[in-house]
Amino acid sequence: MQKPSLPKGTRDFAPEVMVKRNYILNTIRAVFEKFGFQPLETPSMENLDVLTGKYGDEGDQLIFKILNSGDFLSKAKPEDKDDYKALIQKISEKALRYDLTVPFARFVTMNRGVISFPFKRYQIQPVWRGDRPQRGRYREFYQCDADVVGTDSLICEAEIILMINEVLGKLGIEKFALKINNRKILSGIADYLGYPERVSDMCVAIDKLDKIGEEKVLEELGQRGFSEASLQKISPVIALSGTYAEKIIYLKQIFTSSEIGRKGLEELEEVVNLLSQITQKEDFIEHLHIDFDQNLARGLSYYTGAIFEVKALNVSIGSISGGGRYDDLTGAFGMPDMSGVGFSFGVDRIYDVMEELNIFPEENTLSTTQVMFTNFDAEAQKYLLPILAQFRAANIRCEIYPDSSKLKKQMNYANRKNIPYVVLAGEDEMKAAKITLKNMRSGEQDLLTASEAIQKIQ
Amino acid sequence: MQKPSLPKGTRDFAPEVMVKRNYILNTIRAVFEKFGFQPLETPSMENLDVLTGKYGDEGDQLIFKILNSGDFLSKAKPEDKDDYKALIQKISEKALRYDLTVPFARFVTMNRGVISFPFKRYQIQPVWRGDRPQRGRYREFYQCDADVVGTDSLICEAEIILMINEVLGKLGIEKFALKINNRKILSGIADYLGYPERVSDMCVAIDKLDKIGEEKVLEELGQRGFSEASLQKISPVIALSGTYAEKIIYLKQIFTSSEIGRKGLEELEEVVNLLSQITQKEDFIEHLHIDFDQNLARGLSYYTGAIFEVKALNVSIGSISGGGRYDDLTGAFGMPDMSGVGFSFGVDRIYDVMEELNIFPEENTLSTTQVMFTNFDAEAQKYLLPILAQFRAANIRCEIYPDSSKLKKQMNYANRKNIPYVVLAGEDEMKAAKITLKNMRSGEQDLLTASEAIQKIQ
Prior knowledge:
The structure is a homodimer.
Chain A: H1 15-34, E1 38-39, E2 45-47, H2 48-51, H3 56-61, E3 65-67, H4 84-91, E4 92-96, H5 101-110, E5 119-128, E6 140-149, H6 155-171, E7 176-182, H7 183-193, H8 199-206, H9 209-223, H10 228-239, H11 244-254, H12 259-279, H13 284-287, E8 290-292, E9 303-312, E10 319-326, E11 340-345, H14 347-357, H15 362-365, E12 371-373, H16 378-393, E13 398-400, H17 407-416, E14 421-424, H18 427-432, E15 435-439, E16 445-448, H19 450-457
Parallel strand pairs in A: 1-5, 7-8, 12-13, 12-14
Antiparallel strand pairs in A: 2-4, 3-4, 5-6, 6-11, 7-9, 9-10, 10-11, 14-15, 15-16
C-alpha cells in the first residue's frame, strides 16, 4: 500500500487555514457587494480554443489540458502519433482556466444580449498554471477579481481605490502604498523622449526599476536603442519625487507638446477630484494611501488608462493587489470596443502578509465552534442534549463530544480545536439544574443556568 | 472569428443564479458550523493513483485526466504509442477529483498525526465526471458533504437528522420525507430469508422498488436464485407499512434468530431515543419528518450502519440529500478501521426544487445591490457622491450609475438588476439638502434626508 500524496504545487486547506482564508474572502466579498458588484462563476474547464493564444506562447505552455474520455488513440491517424501538436489536438479539447479574465470575456461575449451594461461582476475562483512550483507559487490558487465593463466613467477608478482601502482597512493591514499611474502618462513620457511608438519597450525597462535600480534601467533603455539625449531627459522623470501636486506640476511642463500625456494627467486628476468629493476630507490622498508613481507600468501593454498596484509595507512579500483600465476585453472573441476597469486581490499573498504581521483577529483564528459540551456518561449526556439544542436555537455554534471518553481526552480535543468555551455537567450541576461554563482561555468557571450561559457567550 | 462556447455539460452561473445558489450554500454552511463541523478544501487535482480503483470500472472511465505539461510523446516508448493504457500512464499523472469522499480519505490518512479525532469536517467544492450530459446531470457540479470520522457514537446520526431538518426548514422546503434505515436491518432480513451471505444481491433488487414495484422486485430476486419460500417470506417485509413503532415490533419478531438484525434495530432505536431526548417533543418523529423505510438500501454496499435519504415531496426531482455510516473510510490508503458517518446535500437538486416550488425568498432573488444612485449630471453627481459614501458607511450595498446617461436608461438598469431602491437628486432635492428615495416595487417616492433614507432601508 503506497502512501498517498498531493500533486506538486497543490495544497490542502485544513480547517485552521480555511477559517483564516474565509475571513479574508468574506471581507473582500462583502466590500465588492457593498460597491454594487455581483458574483459570477464560470466553469473550471474551458474549450481549448477559448484559452489558447490569450496568454502568449509562454502562458500557453502552462495551461493544463484535459484528456478527452474514451480511447482517443484509435481515432488518431498513425502519423499523428509521433507529432506532439497534432496528437494534442486529437486527444484534448478542454483545459483548466488559467485566469478569470478570459472566461469573463467569454461570458460577456456569449451573453451580450442579456447583460445590463455597465456590468459589474466579481469572481472568486481557483485557477491553474503549470508553473514550476516554488515558495509562494502554486499550480492551483484562487484569484479574486472585480471588473466593471461597458463604461469609461472614472467613478469606477475612484471606487476601486475606495474598495482597496476598505478591504485592507477591515483586514487590519494599515501600512500600504496604493500606487497609481496612467498608461497615457507613460505614453506622454515616451512622447517627451521623442519615441512615441516605443512606449511598451520603455515600460518593460522602467518596470524593473524596483529590482535593478535607475542606473541599470537607463542602461537597458540604451541597449534598446534609446538615444543618449533621451536618457538624459528621462533620468529626472524616473527620479521624480515629491508630493502628488508637485509631480503633476512637473509633468504638465514636460507634456506641453504631448496630448496623450496631458490626457493621462487629466484622467488622474479627475479620479483624485472624485475622491475628494466622495471623502470630503482635506488629507484624502494620505488617508487613502494614494501614491502617484509615474514609473508604475505593470508590464501589461493590455492597460490603456489607470494602472493600480498595492504594496504592503514592512513585509517580505509586497504586492497584494493590482489592476487597471483596458479598452478591449472581448476583441479576441469578435466583440470590439468593450472597455472596462478591474482589479484583483492576491489572496495567498494577503494571507502571508497577515500571518507575517500576526494580525488575524483572535476570534477568527479560532475554531468555528464556540462551545464544546462534555460527555461524562449516559446520564450527563441525556441531561445536556436538550441544553445543547437550546444553545443552537440561540444560534451558538456548538458540539457535544460524541463519546463518554476520559475527561482529559475531551478537554484536549477542545484545546486542540481552539474552542473557546466548554460546558460541563456532573451530579452537582444536574441537582441544581445548572451547568458549568468554562472559559478555556482564562480558565474561569461559572455555575449558570442554560439561559445565563447563552447570554454570557453571545 | 469563431463564436466562443462552453464545454458540454458545464455552466456559467450568472449573478441572478449565483445569488440564489449562495443563499442555499450559505444556509447549509451556517448549519454545518452550528453543529461543530469545520471547513476543509482539497485541491481540484489529485494524483491518478489516489483516484483510480475507488469508483469501480465504470467510475474510473468517467475520471477527467489531466495531460502532463511538456512534450510527453518524446518520453513515450514507440510501442506505447499504439497502446492506450500504456500511453495514458506516460502522459497523465493527475486527474480532477470525482467526489469529495476519496480526497477526504486521502487527507485524513496524510494528516492522521495532527488531526484531533473525532474529526468533523464539511467540504463544499465542485467535482467533475465525464458522464454523458443530460437534463440535471452536469460534468462539473458542486458537492456539499459533512462527515464525522473517528467515532461510532450514534449522536452523530441523530445530529445529521437535526441538520437536515434545520437546513430544509430554513430554506422553506416543508414537505419532505427523511427516510432512514440501517444496513444491519437489511442484513437481518437476509438472515431471515436464509441467505445471510447475499445481502448485497438482495439490496440491489430491493433498491429498485420505487422504480419497478414489488412484483418485479420479487421476480428479480427469483432470477438471482432466491428460493420461492424466501420470496414468500420477504413479500410482507417489503410491503410492511404502518407507524415507526409498528414496524419495529414486526421486525423484532422476524429477527429473533438474527443477531445482526436485532443490532440494527437497537441502533435505530437508540438514534430515535436520542432525538427524543434532544427535542423533548412527543411528536418528534413527525416533526423531524422521519420515515423509517426498511427497503432503503441506496445501492452502496459501502454503508455498514445507518442509511439516510431525503426526498422532497410533490416535486419532479425527489432525492435531495443522502448518506450513511461506514466502517472503513481510509482502508484503501493503508489506514484501517476509520469509521464515520456522513451525508451530502445535492445543491443543484435543491435549487431545482426551490425553483419548482417558487420558494426563494424575494429578498434573495434580488440583486445583491440595495440602492442605485442616479446620475443626472456632474453637479448632481458631485452632490450625491458623499451621500453614497454615507450609505456605504451604514453598510448599505449601493452603486452610482457611472455615466450621466438618459434617466430612462438608468432606471432600466436598476429594474433589470432588480435593485429595490433608487436615489434621485435634481435641483429641488439639492436646494432642500435632501434626496428622493424611490421604492422600485411599490413605486412610492419620498423626499428624505440621507439619514432618514438610510433608516428606511435598513
